[in-house]
UniProtKB/TrEMBL annotation:
Protein name according to UniProt: GNAT family N-acetyltransferase
UniProt xrefs under Pfam families: Acetyltransf_1
Organism: Shewanella vaxholmensis
SUPFAM superfamilies per record: Acyl-CoA N-acyltransferases (Nat) (SSF55729)
Keywords from the UniProt entry: Acyltransferase, Transferase
UniProt EC number: 2.3.1.-
């Protein structure tokens, strides 16, 4: 199992992991539209402050994560997802561990942050088990289709 840089061809499979608008919103908000757009995903992957990474084993794509450079010392883990075929097998924790190890190699980052929707209990517990703690920061919700979804902010020192 390894963490590798995303290539444009990965977008087709990653977006296939979402079958409903709600699943898509829990993962990435409106970032890539609905239905999800390969073009939007590839365009975002080319931004200088963003790195897309894929957790893979052989030819199998197990998961995806976005690393967003917030500042000289802060990196944000975003749009974390495990391929539905591999959920519940510990790959989420592996994806976080490998991502943090990659970030630590760079040495300038001192803190990793992320946000998770309160209803996404499995993801919250995964992040907590890796040492992320809840912090009192904005935003505390996102609004989708007229509904406010509570959002939890988390961070860990690197």
């Amino acid at each position: 199992m390894n963490l590798r840089k995303f290539v444009a061809q990965d977008s087709t499979e990653v977006i296939s992991w979402f079958s409903t608008e709600k699943e898509s919103l829990l993962w990435g908000g409106w970032m890539f539209g609905w239905p999800l757009s390969e073009t939007e995903m590839v365009n975002r992957s080319q931004l200088p402050e963003v790195e897309f990474m894929v957790l893979s084993s052989g030819n199998d794509k197990l998961g995806f994560i976005e690393l967003q450079h917030i500042s000289e010392t802060e990196i944000r883990l975003c749009r974390i997802v495990i391929n539905p075929e591999y959920r519940g097998l510990g790959y989420g924790r592996s994806l976080i561990a490998l991502s943090i190890a990659e970030v630590r190699k760079r040495e300038q980052f001192k803190i990793a942050t992320l946000a998770v929707f309160a209803e996404n209990v499995a993801a919250y517990n995964c992040y907590k088990s890796y040492g992320f703690i809840s912090v009192d920061k904005e935003p505390k919700f996102r609004e989708f289709n007229g509904q406010k979804w509570p959002l939890l902010q988390m961070e860990t020192a690197l």
